[in-house]
Amino acid sequence: MAFPISKTLTSDEELNFLSAKCGDFVALSSPQSSPDDWWVGMIISQVGSSINPSINTLFQVINIDTGIVKVVNADFVRGIIQTTNLKT
After folding, report:
1. At 37, is the secondary structure helix, strand, or coil?
2. For the chain, where are the E strands, in sequence order?
3. Residue ranges of the domains in the chain?
4. 9 vs 13, 44, 57, CA distance in Å?
5. pLDDT tens digits, residue range 47-70?
6. 17, CA 20 to 30 Å: which among 49, 61, 65, 82?
């Protein structure tokens, strides 16, 4: 099943990572990968930019299928599947 990821992102899709936060379940894929090559993870930590800490640059994410923890660039977030109300 392919997650609906377009090759050219709209302005709303480009900003998905800006609203992602700890506890959110997100669809992730590398910008260079095929639209069919994606995985679901839960954000457990986020790192802000050195210039503006409120802008996400890195996420620590648990792959929900394998349990492997990865650090990924924020622009790997293709969509927020389910958001939570956790405070960061």
Report:
1. coil
2. 25-28, 39-48, 56-63, 69-73, 77-82
3. 11-82
4. 6, 25, 18
5. 988 898 888 889 999 999 999 999
6. 65
DSSP secondary structure code for residue 74 in this structure: G
Determine whether 73 is exposed, middle or buried from the number of CB atoms within 10 Å of its CB (0-12, 13-18, 19+): middle
Structure tokens at 21: 């936060």
Residues paired with residue 46 on neighbouring β-strands, in sequence order: 59
| pLDDT the model gives residue 22 | 92
Per the document, the length of the chain is 88
DSSP code of 14? H
